[in-house]
Amino acid sequence: MPITLTMSSLRADPPAGNHPVVRKREEAPSDPFSPQNGSASAAPQPPAHVGGGGSASATKQSVSFTMQDGVFTLRLGRTGEEPRPDITRETLTVFEADCLAFAQEKTVLRGPLAPGQQPLKIALIAGFHGDEPGGPLACERLYADFLQDPTSYTGLELHLIPTCNAWGLLFAQHANADGLDPAASFGTGSVSAEISSLEKELTDQRYDAIISLHTDTSARGLYAYGSEDERRHNFLIHALEDAATLYPVTEGSPFEGYHATRIDPASAFPGSPRPTTVAGRTFTEILLELPGRCDRHTQARASTAAVRAILARLAAR
Ligand SMILES: [Zn+2]
After folding, report:
1. Which candidate in 3, 49, 209, 315 could, as Cys together with 122 as Cys, close a disulfide (CB 3.0–4.6 Å)?
2. Class for the domain spanning 40-315
3. Lowest mean pLDDT among 40-44, 56-60, 236-240
4. What are phi and psi for residue 267, nearest 5 degrees?
């Protein structure tokens, strides 16, 4: 029998910082939002099937550390879940630390395709820093979305990597077991197996888009870094406007909303993951910073809404 530890039993929320928070969205709508009344906004609407508020899917969520044959794996899905052809799992690497073994697992969700359609391949990577649980929890919600309605991923192939620092997540450490910052070590010939395996993954897979999730411990709102390119920046602004429309604001929540920045993730985080050897290839790179001053489930809901909106806009291109 595998040993299973759920995320909720493992973690505390990251500490609140004392720094100024990100600004609220200007013109924030005054009414609580839900998919049912989303038409109240003039913002472009993603397809209705992408805009679930998350409450229905919450009953099916599961992400947990399993230990089988002595290897800890952060796994999306429930034990005993029926295998299905549109969900596959792959071990990218297994590494040892502190006399324990950890697997870096990728889960691929394949949405329906029209005849002859090539899927848009998107990597969603979270859990760089083990003290940022919101990203892995967002992966859990997106996985649950797929179980509930695969058509919400029509035309998409979503590669979920819920943590690239499993040791850090298990022990609530920002750095990895080698004492390195996994988000700052890409492209530097890292000695850490989980970083070099992810570098290889990003290079080999030729993704159309890479979305990274982090948590800003001082922020009450979610914000995103996108390319400085005007077209991509507008794309990101509109996606976050969609997210603000679809996100079901909770009464009394400290969540302040969304905004996009004009900073390229590559310049904000020179070591952030990107394909390093695919010359001449354009891809979309987005980095979301989750609101660390909100509880981890608010972080997950807000970022899931943002990712849903981003996916909808990518799929509509
Ligand atoms: Zn981070």
Report:
1. 209
2. alpha beta
3. 40-44
4. -90, -30
186: confidence class by pLDDT, cuts 50, 70, 90: confident
Residue corresponding to tokens 């394909």: 275
**DSSP 8-state class, residue 15:** P
Please give the distance, rounded to the nearest whole angstrom, from the Cα atom of residue 222 to the centre of ligand 1. Answer: 13
pLDDT tier at 280 (50, 70, 90 boundaries)?
low
Cα of 215 vs centre of ligand 1, distance in Å, is 5
Which residues touch 75 (CB under 8 Å, ≥6 apart)? Answer: 63, 64, 65, 66, 89, 105, 107
What are 107's two structure tokens?
């889960």
Calculate how far, in angstroms, residue 218's C-alpha sits from the geometric centre of ligand 1.
12
Count CA atoms within 13 Å of residue 129 on its CB side.
19
pLDDT at residue 50 in the model = 32
Domain layout of the chain by residue ranges: 40-315
In eight-state DSSP terms, residue 46 is P
